[in-house]
Amino acid sequence: MIPRYIVDFDASELTQLEADVLIIGSGIAGLYTAIKAAENRSVLLITKKALMESNTRYAQGGIAAVTSGEDTPASHMQDTFIAGAGLCEPEAVRALVHEGPDGIQELIRLGTAFDRENGELALTREGAHSHRRILHANGDATGYEVVRALSEQVVAHPAIQVWEESMVIDLLTEHGECIGALVQKPDGERWYVTANATILCSGGSGQLFRYTTNPDIATGDGTAMAYRAGAAVRDMEFIQFHPTALCHPGAPRFLISEAVRGEGAVLRNIHGERFMEQYDSRQELAPRDIVARAIVHEMERTQAAFVYLDITHEPSERVKQRFPTIYRTCLSFGLDMTTDWIPIAPAAHYMMGGVQTNLYGESTIARLFACGEVSSTGVHGANRLASNSLSEAIVFGSRIAQRLHSLPPLAGRTLIAYNDNRAELRSLSVVEERRKLQKTMVRYAGVHRHGEGLQAALDALHAQLSVFKAVITSQEEMEFANLLTCALLVTDGALLREESRGAHYREDFPKTNDSVWHKHVQQRREQGITEECVHDI
């Protein structure tokens, strides 16, 4: 059993702070929501690294929204539904496609400089999109530009206070409400922070897997904390593996944007043969789950560790201008994408599931909200459509800020104490345990899954539960506890869902089964794992 809190504490012995709005995380969701919330209230934003360090920073492809007269929200909605494989919540998608364009204008107002052509916003196309609707910045550095602009606004805002290098340990709850969080500052001192509203914007859990496009900080902290607090999490079995991550000796699994395929790149196996037409009529522009599985199948068939991405047929100057970051990064490892085929393989990229929310970002716990990758709004279903993530963050960040207007003041703040009689287990090697967890997840819960393997994964993960009986002090130990929590949720959900759908592929149940599994999988700490119907269109 995962405990309620991962550390013992007595609030009466801790430094205390009262905040109006507490935001955890500094990606696009955290920064944008902070700016919107600070229009009429004070905000404390906490991030465990530097303000600009987040998954958003590394987002290359762009942000999806209808800004062209040749495109329509209905078309964007339909593309999202198709990619989501039947599990998208219609009202959430409707909010995304209709409110996303206004969010783009707000990002521009806040200083984001999207690329333009002849004075108009430059648009590209990515996999599973029927139109060119992806806005980008500095070619392939969209995430960095968005975070740069929003960070400058946050730092300059008089109503926003920022705590960097600070780790949120757990959410605090009393009488069914979230009243704040337990926080560890850089010097190790723990603070008891209470807030009228707490908003999780802490990103995903790519570090569940050894090979991931995510930075080291993506350890599923918000999802794990919310689950321990009693919130419902949903669809955790759906982990998106990006089809094209650099696979080269000495190089990290650097993301090669989907936009490269959108601009004409093709996939070739180790023998130089194109293969996507054998798997899907949309070929390289099929949804990510299909392309990732095709690549893995081709690697297995040819006994290779990678396949190639080839854009050498496109004009070299156009490639360098459109993808300057990718070009420079590949070149630093001796690969010139204008003349060389780039070796790639799938890598863990995005978590479709997360903290279940309604259309205004509210979780199943009063006063606790979630926004961005940590949330499960229902937009992405079983497989996220490319570049919908940044759009989701701004749309639902705005909706959360709207909901804060009607949130009554928190009536009294209780000082909580918690003691689980934890023992000193200094022999616990977090680095070794984390690698063991990642090895388990890669082997049994990756692109291809099987019931026997998933059960073996659960058994291996349960053997690591001793961490929750240890006295945890460091950020690395807290992150491992969060990863273990998320790993158990992902594996448990994947074992329950006896079908293949979107990013979840079961070799022992290779077909989609709408008659039984056209539903979400919901997990709560006290109630266990249940099923929830999908709303009809």
TrEMBL record:
Protein name: L-aspartate oxidase
Family, per entry: Belongs to the FAD-dependent oxidoreductase 2 family. NadB subfamily.
Cell location: Cytoplasm
GO molecular function annotations of the record: L-aspartate oxidase activity
Catalyses which reaction(s): L-aspartate + O2 = iminosuccinate + H2O2
Keyword Flavoprotein (UniProt): yes
Function: Catalyzes the oxidation of L-aspartate to iminoaspartate.
Domain Fumarate reductase/succinate dehydrogenase flavoprotein-like C-terminal: 434-523
Lineage of source species: Bacteria, Bacillati, Bacillota, Bacilli, Bacillales
Cofactor section: FAD
Residues in FAD-dependent oxidoreductase 2 FAD-binding domain copies: 20-390
Pfam families hit by this protein: FAD_binding_2, Succ_DH_flav_C
Enzyme Commission code: 1.4.3.16
Organism: Paenibacillus farraposensis
Source organism superkingdom: Bacteria
Keyword field: FAD, Flavoprotein, Oxidoreductase, Pyridine nucleotide biosynthesis
Top EC group: oxidoreductase
Pathway annotation: Cofactor biosynthesis; NAD(+) biosynthesis; iminoaspartate from L-aspartate (oxidase route): step 1/1
Gene: nadB
Alphabetized SUPFAM superfamilies for the sequence: FAD/NAD(P)-binding domain (SSF51905), Succinate dehydrogenase/fumarate reductase flavoprotein C-terminal domain (SSF46977), Succinate dehydrogenase/fumarate reductase flavoprotein, catalytic domain (SSF56425)
Entry-linked InterPro entries: FAD-dep_OxRdtase_2_FAD-bd, FAD/NAD-bd_sf, Fum_R/Succ_DH_flav-like_C_sf, Fum_Rdtase/Succ_DH_flav-like_C, NadB, Succ_DH/fumarate_Rdtase_cat_sf
